[in-house]
Design a protein that fits this description.
352 residues, alpha+beta, 8-stranded antiparallel sheet, 3-stranded antiparallel sheet, 17 strands
Length: 352
């Protein structure tokens, strides 16, 4: 499908860049070898793992643990599938006799939902996981449009407006002590697409860091998280795709950091010759306009996931003000007319 081809292409660009850097060291030491693997099983995207180890067996052990954890997060956070023995967000969204019921969930769901509420407050409601009723309409129409382009159409605005009346995040009741979630509006749905993938990536990265693992890069559908530096102490080079050309928009160097991009070129379909992407503005209820990509550099991949989405929906002036108000985060915007804007500290990460 078009979506998957685009994701594979984006991952391939990053991998080509990562593999193009030669390992070197000024002091004698046992050289660790570079290994890689990938999976297409989780979060409806491609996961790529690149790491340095002494042997293939050592790398495989770490990579398998990474994929095992991503599988668990995927099963917990998906809103599209149920799994035996797991109460996940699909169960939270489910109606029983016309109403949501209280669901006891894994602590990892509680923690992610609480973090999502923090992002809602920080972004002034721009990132709102309670937008599921609106986003599900777009998802359904986009799926039909991609599978059958001749019948592609837009969700009717009256339906979008009606759905938007059921997006009050305060109707999501979280009981931290008992690990339960209840949606008190029967027409409300959760959609954690703006945060779950990045949040899961960050949790896996923090788990590896706590174990002393270093010299790895995770790329979960464009959420790139560097765990340590390369064995020689050098940074990881990450190429940011230019959706309007073959050259990179930028090549940045990071250690123990995340690089996350939200773009209009990643998931879209056509109606009457016009492309409609997946990043929906919470006020217009239509795909956000003005930018083709927004990239963020920060420590936390979950934070980068949420903030890049928020910046995509904000004006450039408001987005710049938000970024400049937050320590240790930089951003780069690319407008629809190919104008590139960088936050004040972005250039510090650009490869010289």
């Amino acid at each position: 499908m078009m979506i998957m081809k685009q994701k594979i292409y984006s991952v391939a660009i990053v991998l080509c860049l990562l593999f193009g850097v030669v390992l070197s060291s000024c002091t004698p030491q046992k050289q660790r070898n570079k290994y890689s693997t990938y999976s297409m099983d989780y979060f409806d995207t491609v996961t790529t793992i690149v790491g340095y180890e002494n042997t293939q067996e050592e790398f495989d052990a770490v990579a398998n643990e990474i994929l095992s954890q991503l599988r668990e997060y995927h099963q917990l956070y998906t809103i599209y599938h149920r799994f035996d023995g797991i109460e996940n967000l699909c169960n939270v969204n489910e109606l029983v006799d016309g109403a949501h019921h209280t669901v006891t969930v894994d602590r990892r769901i509680i923690d992610m939902l609480l973090y999502a509420k923090e992002m809602y407050t920080l972004t002034g409601g721009t990132v709102n996981i309670a937008m599921g009723s609106v986003l599900s309409l777009w998802h359904d129409y986009r799926s039909v449009g991609m599978d059958n382009p001749a019948n592609a159409s837009l969700p009717p605005m009256d339906k979008l407006i009606t759905a938007s009346e059921h997006t009050d995040i305060s109707m999501m009741i979280i009981d931290e002590e008992n690990c339960t979630v209840t949606l008190t509006d029967p027409d409300m749905k959760l959609d954690v697409g703006a945060i779950a993938k990045g949040y899961a990536t960050e949790m896996v990265a923090q788990y590896l860091e706590a174990r002393g693992v270093s010299g790895y890069v995770l790329n979960v559908g464009g959420n790139i998280r560097a765990i340590g530096a390369k064995p020689d102490g050098s940074s990881w080079a990450v190429g940011i795709e230019n959706p309007q050309g073959e050259d990179y928009l930028a090549t940045v160097e990071v250690k123990d950091m995340s690089v996350v991009t939200s773009g209009s070129y990643q998931r879209y379909y056509y109606v009457d010759g016009k492309a409609y992407h997946h990043i929906i503005h919470p006020e217009t209820l239509m795909p956000a306009e003005g930018f083709v990509s927004v990239s963020v550099i920060c420590k936390n991949s979950g934070f980068g996931d949420a903030i890049s989405t928020a910046l995509f929906c904000m004006s450039l002036e408001d987005g710049l003000a938000l970024v400049e108000s937050i320590p240790e985060i930089e951003a780069m915007w690319m407008t629809e007319d190919s104008v590139k804007t960088e936050s004040s500290g972005w250039s510090e990460y650009v490869k010289k």
